[in-house]
Amino acid sequence: KNAPPEVPYWIPYLGSAIQFSVNPLKFYAENREKYGDVFTYTMVGRKFTVCLGTEGNNFVFNAKLADVSAEESYKPLTTPVFGKGVVYDCPNHMLMEQKKFVKWGMSNDAFRAYVPEIEEETRNYFQRWNNKVGGRGDLFTAMGELIINTASRTLMGPEIRALMDESVAQVYHDLDDGFQPINMFFEWLPLPSYFRRDKAHLKMRNIFKKVIEERRANNVTDKTDMLQSLMNQTYKDGTPFTDVDACHLMIALLMAGQHTSSTTATWALLFLAENPDLIKDLLEEQKSVLGSVDAPLNFDAMKNMTLLDNVIRETLRLRPPIIMILRKVIRPITFPGTDYVIPKGNYIAASPIATQVDERFYKNAKAFEPSRWENIVEEETGESVDYGFGKIAGGGARNPNLPFGAGRHRCIGETFAYVQLKTVISTFVRMYDLSLTERGMPGSDFTKMFVQPVLPVEINYKPRN
Ligand code: HEM
User: Fold this and answer.
1) What confidence tens digit (pLDDT) does each residue in 46-87 have?
2) Has residue 263 been placed in a domain?
3) Residue 332 lies in a domain
4) Which of 118, 411, 418 is the best mutation target for the ligand 1 pocket, counting ligand atoms within 8 Å of the beta carbon and taking the most?
5) Ligand 1, residues at Cβ distance < 6 Å
6) Where are the alpha helices (H) located in 331-402, listed in sequence order?
7) E strand or H helix at 47, and its extent?
8) Which residue segment(s) compose the domain that 91 sits in?
9) Which of 65, 158, 342, 350 is 20 to 30 A from 369, comparing alpha carbons?
10) Structural domains counted in the chain
């Protein structure tokens, strides 16, 4: 039995860290030519075995709990930000139950209520861009600010939204600064950003805690948001899910949903700016579904906006914010169909973007063509996951398009993300016509936790009407 081939390196300890972080996709593509779908590289004293292709995705996403651990990979990064007792700071079965608690807070009824709120937030936010002639707008900054407003207004609750314009935004900023890839490697460094992060964590927790206490004191029961649903949970074995746990899970959701959604909204609008015909078609679709582009958006009607769906799906195929999924190997595992044994202590990495832009799966794979999804029914491979409240569709890890992951750690925010993105994009194109500036499409910055466009991201806009 053999270990997978290794990428040679000349700088001890650091290994391939520099080549990797400049452009991980290029690094993977070049080494795949030499070594095939499965190979190991060294970064900052750790060994990563990347598993490419649909079999590689399936291997990582469906690896057994006894063989690999997500907690061991992500904990140094996530626990100081989210807090103790939730997500990767507890046994996996507790995370599975936490995901179930969260699911209950994302019902269709909740979504029905969210759409008009997100529409209003978007309109209010982009009013500030309004003048008769239009101009240039900083799209990336705008989307970051808007998404934190919409997510707090809906999932987090109105009390948090009310605080967003003052205290919460800065606290969030400090927390976010402490959520960088470097923390995975240098958790022991006394960085100033870590002190700010730890202070921000406590402040954020107290903000949520105060809202919970106020709701309890006032016997509030009519709320349907996430906070309310997390206030009343118990684990199956009777262990209480405490208010502090609820605060920590709220922070985790805030972090999981913020950059993923805001970068996706940014890229989607950039692609639209590059393809003005699609903007016309989106407005036509709104007319045909709602009767007019002035009619309020609503959750049920938006289900019929398939072009809008396909624009988002295509954006996530080409520009998924998460390009590397990690698990730490806790028991040596063999890669199926090979004699490669991946040793204990290595990390295995999936990078679904590799299949998402592969010509073998998608014709003209690098091009933005939402229409490619018209005739593709996303294939179910039967490997759906059961968290104890019914099977999750799309759990199949051999699907070449996996921006939300697969298996037991699959994203639970997908539907919320789609609702939010559909509402924001629809409202934006109603308000403004947009086009790229002379800089064209930005490249990708891979050094951030969530891949984002190289800044600054400006766009030309012109008020409609
Ligand atoms: C997990 C992507 C939005 C909450 C994941 C994973 C991916 C992902 C790839 C799998 C991670 C892994 O296997 O290690 C995305 C994308 C989003 C998005 C592309 C938006 C475009 C959201 C939102 C929320 C959310 C809005 C919550 C409000 C979660 C949670 C997990 C998760 C709780 C589970 C982590 C686990 O079980 O280990 N997401 N996400 N995500 N996401 Fe999302």
Assistant:
1) 999 999 999 999 999 999 999 999 999 999 999 999 999 999
2) yes
3) yes
4) 411
5) 70, 95, 99, 155, 253, 256-257, 260-261, 264, 316, 320-322, 325, 403-405, 409, 411-413, 416-417
6) 353-356
7) strand 46-51
8) 17-463
9) 350
10) 1
